[in-house]
Design goal:
The complex is a heterodimer of chains A (300) and B (160). Chain A is an alpha/beta fold and 300 residues long. Chain A has two domains: 218 residues, Rossmann fold (3-Layer(aba) Sandwich), CATH 3.40.50; 49 residues. Helices cover 32% and strands 29% of the residues of chain A. Chain A contains eleven helices and 13 strands. In chain A, the strands form three sheets. Chain A has a six-stranded mixed sheet, with helices on both faces. Chain A starts with a strand and ends with a helix. In chain A, 44% of the residues are buried. Chain B has two domains: 90 residues, Arc Repressor Mutant, subunit A (Orthogonal Bundle); 47 residues. In chain B, helix 2 crosses helix 4. Chain B starts with 14 loop residues before the first strand and ends with a helix. Classes of the chains: A alpha/beta (300), B mainly alpha (160). The interface between A and B is medium-sized, with 26 and 23 residues.
Chain lengths: 300, 160
């Protein structure tokens, strides 16, 4: 499987502080990938490195096979929607598209107009007078009309209400279904990503903590509840990610749950992506990083 | 266990219904998602098709909603819909026709009513025994769920 982004030992320092450090990952093509982590985890830094808005302080990053971010070959094939979807508020939607068509050779204005007409966004209205949801739809339509192979979005739905969020994700997923683009989006809201994303990268304190297919993560994690004295016996070869213990009862969220030894007094429950992510974030020493992805990382 | 089409949505936020005009799209059913159920999204779609088959709402020849329409309505990853449809094909319930879509290909074997009633009677006898032994509703459910889990594990091991 080819990768749309590969990094090895990637780091970015601002002054003395490392915003991102020792980040090695391979993001597979044809997927919708979520980049998750608390504020200040290094998400935006990683995305800016991927689109070439900033240069690495350490390590390597290549995109779409073997291209350095920021090169013309990469710029024309990657779309980027920055945080808070920055557009010129005093321009109308139509003028915004005229501007982009002058700035970008690959801009397909008819495509953008058709997309916006389908969701009833008035072309004559000034961008500053649109609702947050409409503004983000304009930014998405502009980005998609360049027919990118990879679309990178920084917190695209953070400020939207639930309905606008749903509509934005529906538009994004339709583009994935129609054009087969790869998507990398960052978010600090995990609950809604389970339906949308099929691959997950968790960043915490500038480092990668979890990388994997959502399906594999859901299949390999379970919540075990039972008498505290039997906790070690039930675990078998499973790895504890997070735990809560009282004098009598233990609640364990474990990885590699197929290696547990089932005991009658223990309850085994499936879990969801949000619970898994929160467990890792609460216990930064726990991590789930695949070996192969690290070995696959760039050698150039 | 099996999500149904007639469930009342738990919360507006978590349950999104997809409306498809039967006339225009040719689809006979609409999918909805239960965000709080813990059942993977693709399985929810599979279960809803199976349920519709059992109830006769879907019959052989019917077209399932187009992937693009499901994605646009539910805001889910297209791979999830494809996975659900592949699973239905794998079960022999549906067949994909290139360039056209996915169509229902078989009916689901329905357990005869008499057998269902007989099973229900024996379950009632067991429930009465459990209740007489002092188990309350939650204890019974926990025991049942745990036994069901064991059964599916055993079946899984036997199959592999």
């Amino acid at each position: 499987m080819s990768s749309v982004i590969e990094t090895r030992g990637l780091g970015k320092r601002y002054g003395r502080a490392w915003a991102l450090r020792d980040c090695s990952l391979a993001i597979p093509a044809g997927r919708v990938v979520a980049l998750v982590g608390p504020n200040g985890a290094g998400k935006t830094t990683l995305l800016h490195l991927a689109v070439g808005l900033t240069e690495p302080s350490a390590g390597d990053i290549v995109v779409l096979g073997d291209i350095r971010p920021g090169r013309d070959k990469a710029l024309t094939r990657i779309g980027f929607v920055a945080q808070d979807t920055p557009l010129y508020p005093t321009l109308s939607v139509a003028d915004t598209m005229r501007l982009v068509s002058c700035l970008s050779a690959r801009f397909d204005e008819a495509h953008a107009r058709a997309r916006l007409a389908a969701i009833d966004i008035p072309l004559s209205r000034k961008v500053g007078h649109l609702s947050g949801g409409q503004r983000s739809q304009v930014a998405l339509a502009v980005a998609l009309a360049r027919h990118p192979e990879l679309l990178i979005l920084d917190e695209p739905v953070a400020r939207l209400d639930p309905l606008a969020r749903h509509e934005f994700m529906a538009a994004l997923m339709t583009a994935v279904a129609e054009d087969g683009i790869s998507v990398l989006l960052s978010s600090h809201v995990v609950s809604e990503l389970e339906r949308v994303c099929d691959h997950l990268v968790v960043l915490a304190e500038g480092r990668t903590q979890v990388i994997g297919d959502v399906e594999d993560l859901l299949a390999s994690h379970r919540v075990l509840t039972g008498p505290v004295g039997q906790a070690e016996a039930v675990l078998g070869g499973a790895v504890v990610v997070s735990e809560n213990r009282t004098e009598r009862q233990a609640t364990l969220l474990v990885r590699d749950a197929d290696r547990i030894t089932p005991l009658p007094s223990w309850q085994v429950q499936e879990t969801n992506l949000e619970e898994i992510v929160l467990s890792y974030l609460r216990f930064p020493q726990a991590s789930a990083l695949p070996g192969p992805a690290l070995n696959r990382a760039v050698s150039a | 266990m099996i999500s149904t089409l007639v469930d009342v949505p738990r919360t507006a936020c978590h349950s999104l219904t997809m409306k498809i005009d039967k006339g225009s799209s040719g689809s006979a059913i609409e999918f909805r998602l239960d965000g709080g159920s813990g059942v993977p999204t693709y399985l929810q779609l599979v279960h809803q098709v199976e349920h519709a088959l059992r109830l006769g709402m879907l019959v052989p020849g019917d077209q399932l909603p187009k992937v693009k329409d499901v994605v646009a309505a539910l805001a889910i990853n297209p791979n999830t819909v494809l996975k659900a449809y592949r699973e239905l094909e794998h079960k022999g319930l549906a067949v994909g026709r290139p360039g056209q879509g996915t169509f229902i290909d078989a009916t689901l074997d329905v357990v005869p009513v008499r057998e269902q009633q007989s099973l229900r009677r024996s379950l009632m006898r067991w429930l009465t025994t459990a209740s007489d032994a002092g188990l309350d509703e939650h204890a019974i459910k926990a025991l049942f769920t745990s036994a069901l889990y064991d059964l599916s594990r055993q079946r899984g091991e036997a199959a592999s």
